[in-house]
Design a protein that fits this description.
Structural class: alpha+beta
Strand order of the largest sheet: 3-4-6-5
CATH class of the largest domain: Alpha Beta
Strand content: 15-25%
Number of strands: 6
Number of helices: 7
CATH architecture of the largest domain: 2-Layer Sandwich
Order of helices and strands: HHHEEHHEEHEEH
CATH topology of the largest domain: Gyrase A, domain 2
Radius of gyration: 16 Å
Largest sheet: 4 strands, antiparallel
Helix content: 40-55%
Number of domains: 2
Distance between the termini: 45 Å
Length: 153
């Protein structure tokens, strides 16, 4: 199945049901006879810019942001970091950001779209993110900016 068709099915699925994890989304696609891997679902979530929104009882589901401006606002990034990030550390030009399970993709997407010139890109798993920084001398500065997001109020 072509990516555009798969993305249309994903939009339909998250519009009709509360999908809380990548595994649940992959299973919903498989029930529609669409064979996907976790890596494909992860990329699709990032490309579709899906976010996690609270549904109560400490649970979150995938959804679309209300607007693109809301997705990339500094306030949203601060809230996202405060609600999701559990720790960070760096070595050389790599920063590792630890998050609550299921929230790494949203945090990584926000970083990718923040337009910070020292961040080349991110790779997100379920609860951790690798942030690649260039030049490596900028890693400490980027780390301080990320820490500021977790403490801003």
């Amino acid at each position: 199945m072509k990516k555009a068709a798969r993305h249309a099915r994903i939009r339909d699925i998250i519009g009709r049901q509360a999908i809380e994890t990548q595994d649940e989304l992959a299973e919903a696609l498989r029930q529609m006879h669409i064979d996907v891997t976790q890596a494909t679902v992860s990329r699709d979530i990032k490309e579709l810019m899906l976010i996690k929104v609270p549904i109560g009882d400490g649970r979150y589901r995938y959804a679309y942001p209300a607007s693109k401006d809301a997705l990339f606002s500094n306030k949203r990034m601060e809230r996202l970091f405060q609600d999701s990030v559990t720790g960070m550390d760096f070595s050389e030009n790599i920063i590792v950001v630890k998050t609550l399970p299921g929230t790494a993709n949203a945090v990584a997407s926000a970083l990718d779209h923040a337009g910070w010139p020292d961040i080349l890109g991110t790779v997100a798993g379920d609860d951790s993110i690798l942030v690649v920084v260039k030049p490596k001398e900028a890693a400490g500065t980027v780390m301080k900016k990320l820490e500021a997001l977790t403490m801003a109020l």
